[in-house]
Amino acid sequence: MGITIQLGQPGYYGPVRPYGIGLNQLLYQQPLIIEPRYRGWDSGRTVQPIYLRVPPGHAKNWGKHCQRYGSCNRPVYFVRDSWYNDTYGQRYQQQKKNYRRGRGRYRYDDD
Asked: Hey, which residues does 53 pair with through a beta bridge?
């Protein structure tokens, strides 16, 4: 029997929407890129970074874990667990409840 953990829940690891995030909420101020010679880089195309929450140790050994997230070939910012747990997850779950009750749209900004 499997357990499904969704975005906004404490045990979730994966992409997050960076709305309202400051650099002080990132593990590293610069994105990590494991395969910078990916064909998209040389074509002049802009590859958007993604923001991920990963388990402890995955960011430090990103070359070992990036395939699990399908993110070896693009810039990745890692968000701090404290920001995800204390701010993002709680806000996401509240907005989700409000949306289900018909009280407006999802909002992820800091307003």
From this structure: 14
Token pair of 34 as six digits: 């494991």
* Tens digit of each residue's pLDDT (9 = 90 or more) over 30-44: 999 887 555 555 556
Written as six digits, the tokens of 62 are 């990103």
Query: What SS3 class is residue 75?
Result: coil
Which is nearest to 34 in space by CA: 2, 70, 10?
Answer: 70
Residue in the structure block whose two tokens are 């991920």: 52
| CA distance between the termini of the chain | 40
CB 95 within 8 A of CB 107: yes
- Give the predicted TM-score (pTM) of the model: 0.72
* pLDDT confidence of residue 110: 39
